Amino acid sequence: MLDGVENVKKEHVKIFALGGLDEIGKNMYVIEYKDEIVVIDAGLKFPEDDMPGVDYIIPDVSYLVAKKDKVKGIFLTHGHEDHIGSLPYIMKEINVPLYGEKLTLGLVRAKLEEAGLLRQAKLIPFSNRDQVRFKHLNVSCFRTNHSIPDSIGIVVDTPEGPIVHTGDFKFDFTPVGPKTDFAKIARLGKKGVLALLSDSTNSEREGYTGSEQKVGNALFDIFQQAQGRILFATFASNVYRLQQVVDAAVRYNRKIAVFGRSMEKVFQIGQELGYIRVPKGTFIEPDQVQRMPKHQVVIICTGSQGESMAALSRIARGQHRQIQLIPGDTVVFSSSPIPGNTLSVNRIIDQLFKLGAEVIYGNEFDIHASGHGSQEDMKLMLQLLKPKYFIPIHGEYRMLAKHKELAVQVGVKEKNCFVMENGDVLHINREEAFIGEKIPAEIILVDGHGIGDVGNIVLRDRMKLSDDGLIIIVMTIDMKRFKLLAGPDVISRGFIFVRESTDLIAETEGRVKKLVEQLLEQRVKSWANIKAQVIDDIAPFIYRKIQRRPMIIPIIMEVDKAKVEQEKETATSQTFKK
Amino acid sequence: MLDGVENVKKEHVKIFALGGLDEIGKNMYVIEYKDEIVVIDAGLKFPEDDMPGVDYIIPDVSYLVAKKDKVKGIFLTHGHEDHIGSLPYIMKEINVPLYGEKLTLGLVRAKLEEAGLLRQAKLIPFSNRDQVRFKHLNVSCFRTNHSIPDSIGIVVDTPEGPIVHTGDFKFDFTPVGPKTDFAKIARLGKKGVLALLSDSTNSEREGYTGSEQKVGNALFDIFQQAQGRILFATFASNVYRLQQVVDAAVRYNRKIAVFGRSMEKVFQIGQELGYIRVPKGTFIEPDQVQRMPKHQVVIICTGSQGESMAALSRIARGQHRQIQLIPGDTVVFSSSPIPGNTLSVNRIIDQLFKLGAEVIYGNEFDIHASGHGSQEDMKLMLQLLKPKYFIPIHGEYRMLAKHKELAVQVGVKEKNCFVMENGDVLHINREEAFIGEKIPAEIILVDGHGIGDVGNIVLRDRMKLSDDGLIIIVMTIDMKRFKLLAGPDVISRGFIFVRESTDLIAETEGRVKKLVEQLLEQRVKSWANIKAQVIDDIAPFIYRKIQRRPMIIPIIMEVDKAKVEQEKETATSQTFKK
Fold first, then answer.
1. pLDDT tens, A506-529?
2. Does one domain contain both B253 and B341?
3. What are B334-372's pLDDT values in tens digits?
């Protein structure tokens, strides 16, 4: 079915993702009916190691920009970066109302203010008692439990039936903070749910995810037994966990010092908005830590994922200005390493042990509970809502596939389960469902100070530079007289040389000299041509000799014009942003 | 105590590692008494992502080379790469007898033959009935269970008492293959053990490691239920696992095709030496796979760790010449991803799901059991042997630290437990133990075709090149007349440019020009000096502008001498190997 062409007999609701499928990160889900579009979440994603130098990745919203007038609003399920992080970039392109719970909007407000976009933004409080009515679509929500307060699931009521989006969730029967709104969820299920979009993150894990209360109990044990200082690292956004640390600190007479910008911010916003209660006098300034008796101190810090510039990592490296680790310190990693961070975290733990700390980490002591449900949580959600159609979201492909298996186990027809990819458009109504067209769902790479079109050439450059180093071949040419004045000279970086035998540099220089002189004799005028031929000749030559493929950069300097040829076909033709 | 100086009253045995402590890999342990040295294992290590372009890392044996005449032999605990992998390199420097069990020597033989070193090597069969007597030291061994057949623990009897080295082990009460020699171990404990060196790999895991038999049962279930083809990936060296696959295949009427060089080699050597029994007619050729009915095929392949060129990875990418994945295929990952490989493995699994395969992986189905003992296995070994001194080995620091905790729990005095690093020399006898001198325990990096001294400069270069790209600043200078003839010109690679505003390239060029003209006016003759000042000026300037730290490479071309200054302080002063 073509976009925009509607069959006179059947209306369909269109559901698709611009981010969040086949990945963890940059969640953005779109529900479209006739001339109305509702967006759920606007997140960012952190790149993996195969994108060196890229800070984050955001969804491409060109589809939404093209249909600006149809977009009624962005509904935010909670305040994690993978759900709100791309707003500062997206808001520059489409400025629509943002709906969210109190803490979510508080975090969004801080972000937009930092980006200078707050003034023109419309932030509308949205909670479980609210209904937002558009012409065809009504949007409401229900409370859920997650690892940050004020998480909600979204209900989009359409003329074909309700579509439920769980947001990130788990079921916690003894939560810190408000309970999941079971009654509302059950009522939705009873009335009938057309389609369910549900969080697939932990679909590979059996059983239920543990309660936050178990962690609280474990913390009390640790705080009671630790004889020296406690250093406590956790996800900064886990306000509930921080409340439990505060409670344990108060119970066992420890003052709290906070290190790490994101951690300080959360305590600030959290207290302002009433999400964290810290009795007066509990906090101490960083510089007071030294003066306190050791058993009366707990240091809450960033670094639970081994982030190299975070407080705990610097402490482990002995590079923190204010805190030096002392033998007898207890360090708690109240977290779970995200795959990809495991090696960094392990190294920090090794280093802390070497410095004489007692380190508590891993699964042994209930010091962490995930914010995402496991298989039984997911099956419970499916049972409560009994959707006709099921779309697993928020997961890498295998997580989505496993979640689909669970749905089938619980009774959803296999043909009504759709494991999709970003950009696949699902058309549904009461009678049928099919995947129609594919919308381009590109990614935008953000680096340094601004959004850059990093593009594949620059990234491939970087990867190549890393793997086998590079060879620079410089020569000075008088282009008026077609004469080679100086060079070619070979300079290398990132090469491994072995001391024995052949002078490969001299060989390379000789070879290039011969080639270039030949080309100049033929009055070849084009720099690009000369350079391309040098690369085409030298690359296989080098590989034959040493089985390595360094990047080869020929540089031609013209003495007459005092100017080096600018390569128009590469990144250097673009200019810097100030 | 100085090396070589012995106190007239007290003799000590010296124990140290040249590799294997504070790391997983390149195991090499040394026991020295008076004029005798016995070495246990000679492994290699695979680099992590922070060493791009390096193939493997081997221990530096300069200490042993300097004392060549004292080295009586290298005793090999088993045939894994991290225990025998550096032999082809080390044997070039010291040629001493190699002792090992049958399969171990079989694998060593193949390695040395490939390296052209077999003819001069002395390979001496060594098993649990053997005693090798030197002047002061006697060496014997005992059978253990591990994930490769013929694994042994080593006993070095010294005048001060026996030293036991466990090799890699777990306790398996229902093993495939011979049982652990409990009786011998218990007897050793009864007689008294001076020091125990024990495998720490899984010291963070509670309980016992599961039996290989559980895996066999799980495989039978999978082979019975799978309706299409089975693709089975596991560690090539796990001969017991391969035997279980063969048994399941035979039981459920499936023919076996083997893909992947290391896998083919293991089946070949394994059958030759009698470690794998495969009934005639079980194997089929790769090209016969297509013609078999799907439910009668199992494909055993490499790629369980997501290695990009391994068979399964190429199949997942659709790049395998002979095997295309068909929906309905069952893929079994009979393995556990080594930390650092998790992302690669996850990506392969995602891809296989996308191609319609049913993928069995992870902890759900008992499809894998580790070859290393968990906490209870370790405590059992400690209880059986009751050593006076304890040295945890074969682990990253936190694993060693945890293993020490277990030893203390079991009753070894804390002051008699030594968590050491490579090169720390432990001096022990019946009365005392202390860490004395530190031997240099450098690492040797192996790249491409030969052993290269990669060194830190080249590696840092590579890392830097990758992260933020690079800027090349080229200029042509007449050094006789101290004149800047051409440039400076800025060329970049791996940079992200943002299209708007300031021409940072022009700014950089202007800045360098000013600086260099200044230096030339002052008659600065030294290239190194000029370049260093350019870097020192430009690096902070670039960072202030765009928060990036690209590598900066100033290049000075002398037109007069037609020669670019060779940087003597960097890798370029070394020459290539042909």
1. 888 899 999 999 999 888 877 778
2. yes
3. 999 988 889 889 999 999 999 999 999 998 789 999 999
Residue B79: burial class (beta carbons within 10 Å; 0-12, 13-18, 19+): buried
Q: In what order do the strands lie in the sheet with A483-493?
A: A483-493, A470-478, A551-558, A563-564
d(C-alpha B224, C-alpha B220), whole Å: 6
How far apart are the CA of A288 and the nearest CA of chain B, in angstroms?
Answer: 31
Q: B206, B398, B489, B496: which to substitute to probe chain A, counting the most A Cβ within 10 Å?
A: B496
Q: What is the pTM of this model?
A: 0.79
Per the domain annotation, does A460 fall within a domain?
A: no
Nearest CA in chain A to B50: A466
Pair A68, A53 in one domain: yes
Total CB pairs under 8 A between chain A and B: 291
CB-CB under 8 Å, A578 with B398: no
User: Cα distance from B374 to chain A (closest Cα, Å)?
Assistant: 13
Range of the domain at B54: 4-207+370-451
User: Do B141 and B289 belong together in one domain?
Assistant: no
A559 touching chain B per CB within 8 A: yes
Q: Is the ipTM of this structure higher than 0.90?
A: no
Q: CA–CA separation, A339 vs B342, rounded Å?
A: 6
Which residues in chain B have Cβ-Cβ distances shorter than 8 Å to A364? 204, 206
Do A14 and A138 fall into the same domain? yes
Q: By the CB < 8 Å criterion, does B449 face chain A?
A: yes
Does residue A152 sit in the same domain as residue A131? yes
Do B461 and A494 count as a contact with CB atoms less than 8 A apart? yes
**Which secondary-structure segment (H or E) carries B63?**
helix B62-66
User: Which pair of tokens denotes residue B578?
Assistant: 């042909």
At which of B417, B451, B485 does a domain end?
A: B451
Closest residue, chain A, to B471 (C-alpha): A572
According to the annotation, is B328 in a ligand binding site? no
Q: Is A167 left (phi over 0), alpha (psi -120 to 50) or beta?
A: left
